[in-house]
Design a protein that fits this description.
single chain, globular
Length: 56
């Protein structure tokens, strides 16, 4: 069984209305590595924030 990729998992968490800090913490807890490096990407952060706020 393969694990969901970090970016895909971040999108799933954003759809569940998690903040960037919540997403970061959840990804670390789930054992993903280089979380900060991925979440430093401005376009990814913007998309995650937009998705999260749209769901609220």
């Amino acid at each position: 069984m393969s694990r969901t990729g970090i970016v895909e998992r971040a999108y799933e968490l954003a759809r569940d209305n998690h903040s960037i800090d919540d997403i970061r913490a959840a990804l670390r807890k789930e054992g993903y590595i280089q979380v900060d490096e991925y979440l430093q990407d401005g376009s990814l952060r913007k998309e995650l924030k937009k998705l999260s706020s749209r769901e609220s």
